TrEMBL record:
The keyword Lyase is annotated on this UniProt entry: no
Taxonomic lineage from the root: Bacteria, Bacillati, Actinomycetota, Actinomycetes, Streptosporangiales
InterPro entries per record: ABC_BtuC-like, ABC_TroCD
Organism: Thermobispora bispora (strain ATCC 19993 / DSM 43833 / CBS 139.67 / JCM 10125 / KCTC 9307 / NBRC 14880 / R51)
First-listed, main subcellular location of the protein, grouped into a coarse class: membrane
Signal sequence interval, chain numbering: none
Protein's name according to its UniProt entry: ABC-3 protein
Transmembrane segments: 12-35, 40-59, 65-84, 91-113, 133-151, 163-183, 189-210, 217-238, 250-273
Membrane topology qualifier: Multi-pass membrane protein
Compartments, as annotated in UniProt: Cell membrane; Membrane
Keywords (A to Z) from UniProt: Membrane, Transmembrane, Transmembrane helix, Transport
Amino acid sequence: MSLIEPFQTPFMARALAELIILGVLGGTVGVVVLLRRLAFLSDALSHTIFPGVVAGYLLAGEDGVFWGALAAGIATAALLTLLTRRVAQDAALALLLTTLFAAGVVLVSRRSGYASDLTAFLFGRVLTVTPEQLWQTAAVAAVVIALLAALRRPLLLRAFDPVGAEAAGVRVGLLDLVVNVAVALTVVAAVRAVGMVLVIALLIVPAAAARVLSDRLTVIVPLACLIGAAGGWLGLVVSWEASIGYGLRLASGGTVVLVLVAMYGLAQAAGLVRRRVRLGRARTGLEAVQ
């Protein structure tokens, strides 16, 4: 199985570039999501941008999907930040998720061929990524990663000691809005590639796998980015080889997610070995002291 040959064609090269960028972006934001235990937020945002995706598509076709999703994502992040001041976060998420996703279903059902459109929205079309869409994804990734890097210290303080963060003068509400917007932008950037159903995997799985392999945040973040990018690469290769070599049609986005899950399984196995080695060393040290 060649890791290079499938990407000689332009559309595969663009798909690879898109998934590598999304892997780095998802790995970075995913660590914040993991630290703050915001997995449900990521899942909810992947559904609440649905009406924006549909509205953008109805108004301007494929070119309008990104801008519609962007508007819906930012609006959702702002509404969520406001609602969580008055009600519990899980209740606010459930309210926004059901309301906005239902609105999207109503909008998409107005088209005569809405079933095929709905499939594309839910599961993505990474192989049809255009150069313009690739630049949009790169721009979103650059903005989000730069923002999180600039705010890394207050973000860490907010994650590990929210009471101490408030006492230190950190504007927790504004910081929460920044995190919500960062997650929303990541979902917006990834929705065309893997769809709304699978986008949470790009956020959660690489970060979770990296966390199994290391306890140091300075290692976890780059490792999560590497796992995310490698999962995209290998997923495309597996999908290509299955189609060309064996005549099996495998959805690229779904294959990427399955590869990421397999990498998480390998990380769990490696983490188990790592813990046993550390335990063995600790026992040896204890016996030497005695």
